[in-house]
Predict the 3D structure of the following.
Amino acid sequence: MRLRVSLSAVVWLLLGAIYFIVPLVGTLLFSLQSGQNSSYNLSAYGNVIHDHTFWTTLRLSVELAAETIAISLLLLVPTAYWVHLKLPRVQRYIEFLTILPLVVPPIILVVGLLQFYNGTFHAPLWYLEKPHYFLVSAYVILAFPYVYRSLDAGYRAIDVHTLTEASQSLGASWRTTMGRVIFPNIRTAALGGAFLTLAIVMGEFTIASLAAFATFPTYIAQVNQEKVYEAAALSLVSFGITWAAMLGLLFVGRGSGRAQLAGGR
């Protein structure tokens, strides 16, 4: 049986590829220039990679992304499960809450958090001084709409009530039901939320800048103001790092799923 591909689909695919690839190629060629002469070299990439600030800020942003993903999933996976199982009438209210981080600008969010944690309301000042506390809290709020809606779509695609009743009828506890029955069926949705969260944290600049934390996005902004070719090189490097991290999450998720299926057999 031959697969039929329409001409319009091929045309739109080529246009999308051109729209996506041409800017990357242009940025690559510009980053390989060496200034006055027309030769191409990797000096800009060498300057970026050998910069200690590059590795420091990159490590911090990766750690913040991992912590944000873990906290978001730990909070929202059981919450969305319980809403679909026991509280279907609450879904409309939670969906309304998921809209708030989208309509409230990040600058308003960070100003409010800074005012709250500056000691005025007897909040702990040490919470404001640590990026792993302050930024992760803000990033969990920013990622809340994307993670919850991704999980919500995953729960809608399965029969939560039937799976729960079947698991409990076999004597499984709530923990076993959640970990070995429900979560494997929404793993794809959880990975989708993790991808979006990773992209948000690796590209968020406003909150980190106003809170005076040196993260990877603030480092990119600083390089863009000071160095031309290094800025182009850093943009491509950050693009590759983000995609590599997403592929790593995807392979980890698939690997754990296959291992769990093999163990079940």
Residues 259-265 have pLDDT under 50 and may be disordered. The two ends are 34 Å apart (CA to CA). The chain is about 80% helix and 0% strand. The chain has one domain: 45-264.
